[in-house]
């Protein structure tokens, strides 16, 4: 089985960077920030990786996705007609927000003498990444979301937030948890929406919630899709500038037509609830493969030409492992730097939804930052 998303820290504390980068190169490997006080990447030492040091990061609340994914058939060549349509820019600003509270930044602050410090700081800690909200805490969720969105707004930058609390998330895998039922989830979503503010924000709505829904009965799937459609509407009603993206899995999972049918039922084809789809969250598939796949999904989905896609490029610099391994596989690299200027038709952004260095559960406890893993990805 092949997974789409793996374990991520489930609090209001994944990271981001000061501004997005305009990455138009062909390589999937990350490029350094254009403006940084860290040393240039070319001059950073590549030291042997010492044994993992103990981080001072708090234990994560419910771990995020580690689904067991079934590989889909190879994707056909994308249609050139719909993919070349002219679209408006995704957001007024192309600058992404780095939230100042994250496991990697905590490690950076507490381990200045570690020989891996400079590499991890420049190549991971300096980049923008999504902030996950994976613990079901209705009483505090509005304030926690608002803290992130207001921080981005104050700097004129775009935060990326990930609601991850739908019932039966991960189909009983490592990321068990979430709301007790859909009524409670719908109420939690309303409180989440109340924290979105009035400035630009990107919402990655429930990784795996659509692509992995085959584990549910037909009735359960219909109920989940209804709640997801409702969530998208709630976000857009609360903040018309919010851009909401729905789960398209990844290029090695469901066939585009099947995924598009589920997405349509979940509200992803309607601009009242959706701005398009996301793919490759916490996975390793090459950016070129994801671009082709996402365009096929969008073509099959229908809806207005304004619908686009965002791709998680955080760990896909070397592509997916040939053996399908998903749990902290060896030999992976950082992918393209986060940006909302991709130069690709219908591709709205490359994002780091999964923070590199946060373990899937093999190199460290699920969802925790592991310096040795981060260093291996970064060097």
UniProtKB/TrEMBL annotation:
InterPro entries: Beta_cellobiohydrolase (IPR016288), Beta_cellobiohydrolase_sf (IPR036434)
Record bears the keyword Ribosomal protein: no
Protein name: Glucanase
A GO biological-process term: cellulose catabolic process
Residues that coordinate or bind substrate: 132, 250, 253, 283, 326, 354, 358
GO molecular function: hydrolase activity, hydrolyzing O-glycosyl compounds
UniProt keyword terms in alphabetical order: Carbohydrate metabolism, Cellulose degradation, Glycosidase, Hydrolase, Polysaccharide degradation
Annotated segments matching region Disordered: 17-96
Biased composition (Basic and acidic residues): 21-34
Keyword Hydrolase tagged: yes
Enzyme class: hydrolase
PANTHER family documented for this protein: 1,4-BETA-D-GLUCAN CELLOBIOHYDROLASE C-RELATED, PTHR34876
Active site: 208 (proton donor), 360 (proton acceptor)
Pfam families: Glyco_hydro_6
Taxonomic lineage of the native organism: Bacteria, Bacillati, Actinomycetota, Actinomycetes, Kitasatosporales
Biased composition (Low complexity): 38-58
Family statement: Belongs to the glycosyl hydrolase family 6.
UniProt cross-references to SUPFAM superfamilies, sorted A to Z: Glycosyl hydrolases family 6, cellulases
EC annotation from Swiss-Prot or TrEMBL: 3.2.1.-
């Amino acid at each position: 089985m092949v997974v789409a998303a793996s374990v991520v820290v489930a609090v209001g504390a994944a990271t981001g960077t000061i501004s997005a980068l305009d990455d138009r190169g062909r390589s999937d490997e990350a490029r350094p920030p254009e403006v940084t006080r860290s040393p240039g990447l070319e001059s950073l030492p590549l030291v042997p990786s010492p044994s993992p040091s103990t981080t001072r990061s708090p234990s994560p609340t419910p771990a995020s996705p580690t689904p067991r994914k079934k590989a889909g058939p190879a994707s056909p060549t994308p249609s050139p007609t719909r993919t070349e349509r002219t679209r408006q820019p995704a957001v007024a600003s192309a600058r992404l927000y780095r939230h100042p509270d994250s496991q990697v930044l905590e490690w950076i602050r507490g381990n200045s003498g570690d020989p891996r410090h400079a590499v991890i700081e420049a190549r991971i800690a300096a980049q923008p990444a999504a902030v996950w909200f994976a613990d079901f805490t209705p009483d505090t969720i509005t304030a926690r979301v608002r803290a992130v969105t207001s921080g981005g707004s104050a700097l004129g930058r775009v935060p990326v937030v990930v609601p991850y609390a739908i019932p039966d998330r991960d189909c009983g895998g490592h990321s068990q948890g979430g709301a007790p039922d859909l009524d409670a989830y719908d109420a939690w979503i309303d409180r989440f929406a109340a924290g979105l503010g009035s400035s630009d924000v990107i919402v990655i709505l429930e990784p795996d919630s659509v692509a992995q829904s085959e584990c549910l009965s037909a009735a359960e799937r219909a109920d989940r899709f209804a709640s997801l459609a409702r969530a998208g509407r709630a976000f857009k009603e609360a903040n018309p500038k919010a851009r909401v993206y729905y789960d398209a899995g990844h290029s090695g999972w469901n066939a585009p037509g099947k995924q598009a049918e589920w997405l349509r039922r979940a509200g992803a084809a309607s601009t009242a609830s959706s701005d398009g789809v996301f793919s490759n969250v916490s996975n390793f598939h090459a950016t070129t493969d994801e671009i082709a796949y996402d365009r096929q999904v969008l073509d099959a989905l229908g809806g207005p030409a304004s619908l686009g896609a965002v791709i998680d490029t955080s760990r896909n610099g070397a592509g997916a492992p040939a053996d399908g391994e998903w749990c902290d596989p060896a030999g992976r690299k950082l992918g393209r730097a986060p940006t909302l200027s991709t130069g690709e038709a219908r591709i709205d952004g490359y994002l780091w939804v999964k923070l590199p260095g946060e373990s899937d559960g093999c190199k460290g406890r699920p969802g925790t930052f592991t310096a040795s893993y981060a260093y291996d990805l970064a060097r």
